[in-house]
From TrEMBL:
Keywords of this entry: Collagen
Alphabetical list of SUPFAM superfamilies matching this protein: Pectin lyase-like
Basic and acidic residues composition bias: residue spans: 55-77
Domain of life where this protein originates: Bacteria
Stated name of the protein: Collagen triple helix repeat (20 copies)
């Protein structure tokens, strides 16, 4: 503002001087004295007007140019938050953090359906006997049941006057645990059934006896055939033994079964005496007597086995885990019309007695290719056998580290090779 007023004064002074100069020159030339007075009056008037003009300009000056912007004031307080915008797309997953501690287990779900049964494992060691009160069903004294084909499972009580009709019903009537000797005594006749025995011993010296008549076993028959077709096997096994009880079978005959007359499984123990087996392996898979899974067979009397001449049928068969066979006394074991008198391929032990005569005779049939009186195929051991082998390819065939004691008294008739030892096997 101040600069503007000063500029106006300078411009006004310039014109005044110019006018004065022109007027003075004129008056000075025409009327000098009058010119000077007139000039002074003129100058004074001009000055008054200039002063008045300047005063007006001072009171109402023109708008000056904008000044320089001042510095910014302090920031005001933040306003209220606005509404949230739309969610953006998810970013990439970050790396997993450290696992937290496990939470409390949830409630168990419902049990699933039962899977297919797996193969049986080897038997574990026998546990210590516990308090007999915790065993459940257990004998309190010796028990004897009588069985007759003319008896009744519904109305009988197992006594002599009211015998049971089936051997299985008598077995099922016994407690699960045997602390005393038990007897099942058979009347003469034919029992068309398969018998399954699964008992346990509290005292291993007490036997469960199944007795016919040791002098006439052919009158006490357990049959795998029905009466309508008495020579056609319809049942797999005659007697099947489980459990750790000690069984004693004597004076009976087993006829016409598909797979075996006697099947010992899962560590079972049995003595047999004066038993006859007829056509008991009609499927030609096993033998009249089949052992598996650490079973113990103790032969204490005459055994007679007659096969049907099948191409894979055996008298004695063991191939499902190590088993043991013992025979003691003075008696005969006779085996007829089979491919193998003894077939063992399970690192089993066969312990004989030089007073027991084994006769394996196929003279009634044509010789079967590859047949053997004794076949040991997987580290099996045989000791003290008195053998009489007739009409076989081999008298004794040994394979895969098997061992057999060949006694001087053994005889081989119509046998192609008396003893064949292969793959590390030994005959001594």
């Amino acid at each position: 503002m101040e600069k503007s007023n000063k500029l106006i004064s300078q411009i006004a002074s310039f014109f005044i001087v110019l006018l004065v100069s022109i007027s003075y020159s004129y008056l000075a030339y025409a009327q000098p004295k009058k010119a000077i007075n007139s000039l002074n009056d003129f100058v004074s008037g001009i000055n008054e007007k200039i002063d008045k003009f300047s005063a007006e300009k001072m009171s109402q000056g023109e708008k000056g140019s904008d000044g320089i912007d001042g510095s910014n004031g302090k920031d005001g307080e933040n306003g209220s938050d606005g509404t949230n915008g739309l969610s953006g797309t998810n970013g990439a997953n970050g790396t997993n953090g450290t696992d937290g501690t496990n939470g409390i287990n949830g409630i168990n779900g419902q049990n699933g359906s039962t899977g297919i049964q797996g193969e049986k494992g080897d038997n574990g060691p026998r546990g210590l006997a516990g308090d007999t009160e915790e065993l459940g069903s257990i004998t309190s004294a010796a028990i004897t049941y009588y069985v007759s084909p003319s008896g009744s499972d519904e109305n009988g009580d197992g006594t002599v006057g009211l015998p049971f009709a089936t051997i299985q019903h008598a077995i099922d009537s016994l407690p699960d645990f045997l602390a005393h000797e038990c007897n099942i005594i058979l009347a003469a006749g034919t029992y068309r059934e398969s018998v399954v025995i699964n008992k346990n011993s509290v005292n291993a010296t007490n036997y469960l006896y199944i007795t016919g008549n040791t002098s006439s076993p052919n009158s006490y028959i357990i049959s795998g055939a029905d009466s309508a077709s008495p020579t056609e096997a319809v049942r797999d096994y005659g007697i099947t033994l489980y459990g750790d009880a000690a069984y004693y079978l004597r004076g009976i005959r087993l006829d016409y079964f598909k797979k075996a007359g006697l099947f010992m499984e899962n560590g079972s123990r049995s003595r047999i005496q004066n038993i006859n087996f007829n056509y008991c392996a009609q499927d030609n898979l096993y033998g009249a007597i089949r052992q598996s899974s650490y079973t113990y067979l103790d032969i204490r009397g005459a055994i007679n086995i007659t096969g049907n001449g099948g191409n894979n049928e055996s008298g004695f068969y063991s191939a499902d885990g190590p088993s043991y066979m013992y025979n003691y006394g003075t008696f005969a074991i006779n085996i007829y019309k089979v491919k193998y008198g003894v077939y063992s391929s399970s690192t089993s032990q066969w312990i004989g007695d030089n007073t027991v005569q084994w006769t394996v005779d196929n003279s009634a049939i044509d010789k079967i290719a590859g047949s053997a009186g004794v076949y040991f195929g997987a580290g099996d051991h045989g000791h003290d056998f008195e053998l009489d082998v007739n009409n076989f390819t081999y008298g004794v065939y040994l394979d895969n580290l098997s061992l057999f004691d060949v006694n001087v008294g053994n005889t081989y008739t119509n046998v192609d090779t008396s003893v064949s030892a292969n793959n590390g096997s030994l005959s001594v």
